[in-house]
Design a protein that fits this description.
Blueprint lengths: L3 H8 L21 E2 L4 E2 H10 L11
Antiparallel strand pairs: 1-2
């Protein structure tokens, strides 16, 4: 879980556009971010197993 203060800081508009960075919409994690789904790899995995993300299935070959 991300620090509450950093999540609040991230939600504000930065003074300069280059200071903007991505965080997971669910847990606030800054690393392992998937742009297409706007969430971190951990939340993506949990949501995909639950079937909450349409079009995503577990691969098997």
């Amino acid at each position: 879980m991300a620090k509450k203060a950093l999540v609040e800081k991230w939600q504000k508009e930065p003074k300069f556009s280059t200071r903007k960075y991505n965080r997971c919409k669910i847990c606030g994690r800054p690393h392992g971010y998937l742009r297409k789904f706007e969430m971190c790899r951990i939340c993506f995995r949990e949501q995909s197993y639950l079937g909450a993300i349409p079009g995503v299935t577990k691969s098997s070959w």
